[in-house]
From TrEMBL:
EC number: 5.3.1.23
Source species: Ferroacidibacillus organovorans
Encoding gene (name): mtnA
Site-annotated residues for Transition state stabilizer: 166
Catalytic activity: 5-(methylsulfanyl)-alpha-D-ribose 1-phosphate = 5-(methylsulfanyl)-D-ribulose 1-phosphate
Cited function: Catalyzes the interconversion of methylthioribose-1-phosphate (MTR-1-P) into methylthioribulose-1-phosphate (MTRu-1-P).
Protein name: Methylthioribose-1-phosphate isomerase
């Protein structure tokens, strides 16, 4: 365990020689410990169990798990390797269904395999190619996050209060984050912003992870319960809401952490802009509207038990959809690495 830790070192997903090292986000903020996954099965389990979470981070983990599976089968024929990788792709894809970044990264890995296999290069060369592709996915995400941050900065003013939900920072991406990137860049440039972080029930990504990240970076952050959002808006403490996304349909409808849609409704009521910040890898041009986005339902005990302590009676039913879908008409702008887009969002079909 290490506590002397700088946020600039945040690497939630790190490919090593024979495994992928994941920060165990279930243990933060109390402990900084790691889980090492050696193949597709172990990586899929880590994604399912939320060791690693956040749409871009699970995509990177998935790509690395795919590569590790290939590296473990380097003595197979290309045809047999293809079967192994199709199984790995299906296994990883099933680990979490909502974030489209995961399926995008896995398709990209499979396409890379097929391109290399068609060229009749050795399995060794195929495996090396897959490693390079997975690392490229990670490197591209870092660049995208920084560009998203630059665009977000243009929407902020000195001293402004901004509300955010869930965790969209370095822990959820390769670095900087998406919705949090603007706060990091503001800090780097000496612009003071006041960030309000929803605690984000039931999994507490806001109070455990966002507060942890921003605090270490010296960003002015205040945690609130999700049910205080209306009050901070009514009191004029926040003048914008910025969230990330797990999947943006072609018409701009956006799936993100449960509770996001409520914030969008409140923001409209209070006349506050509601921004979605995400890389283009989060856009799903094949899904026409939000009704086509698969929403993950997670185990009941994420609601009824916190850190081993039961907070609801044994036997009570609990409903735990992990994401909701914000209708595009409630979204003031979608910010990607390529710019700031305002509705109607049909151009996202590109
Ligand atoms: C940059 S992360 C964007 C989203 O993935 C984030 O807001 C979110 O909903 C994460 O959900 P999680 O269930 O923690 O994986």
């Amino acid at each position: 365990m290490r506590r002397d830790f700088s946020v600039h070192d945040v690497r939630p997903v790190e490919l090593r020689e024979e495994d992928v090292r994941l920060i165990d986000q279930r243990m933060l903020p109390e402990e900084l410990v790691y889980v090492d996954a050696r193949d597709a099965q172990e990586t899929a389990e880590a994604i399912r169990a939320m060791v690693v979470r956040g749409a871009p981070a699970i995509a990177m983990a998935g790509a690395f798990g795919f590569y590790l599976e290939a590296s473990r089968h380097f003595s197979e024929t290309p045809a047999r390797l293809e079967e192994v990788l199709m199984d790995a792709q299906a296994l990883l894809l099933a680990s979490r269904p909502t974030a489209v970044n995961l399926s995008g990264a896995l398709s990209r890995m499979m396409d890379t395999f097929r391109t290399l296999a068609l060229r009749e290069v050795s399995v060794d060369a195929i495996v090396r190619g897959l490693r390079e592709e997975a690392l490229a996915i990670q490197a591209e995400d870092e660049v995208s996050c920084r560009q998203i941050g630059e665009h977000l900065l243009t929407l902020y003013e000195e001293g402004m209060g901004v509300l955010t939900h869930c965790n969209t920072g370095g822990l959820a991406t390769s670095r900087y984050g998406t919705a949090l990137a603007g706060f990091y860049l503001a800090k780097e440039r000496g612009m003071a912003l006041r960030v309000y972080a929803d605690e984000t029930r039931p999994y507490l990504q806001g109070s455990r992870l966002t507060a942890w990240e921003l605090l270490q970076a010296g960003v002015d952050v205040t945690v609130i319960c999700d049910n205080m959002a209306a009050t901070v808006m009514a009191q004029g403490l926040v003048r914008a809401v910025v969230v990330g996304a797990d999947r943006i349909a072609a018409n701009g409808d956006t799936a993100n952490k449960i509770g996001t849609m409520g914030l969008a409704v409140l923001a409209r009521h209070f006349g506050i802009p509601f921004y979605v910040a995400a890389p283009t890898s989060t856009i799903d041009p094949v899904t026409a509207t939000g009704s086509g986005i698969p929403i993950e339902t997670r185990p009941e005990d994420e609601l009824t038990v916190i850190r081993g302590a039961r907070i609801a009676p044994v036997g009570v039913a609990a409903y735990n959809p992990a994401f909701d879908v914000t209708p595009n008409e409630l979204i003031t702008a979608i910010i990607t690495e390529t710019g700031i887009y305002r509705g109607p969002y049909a151009f996202l079909r590109l």
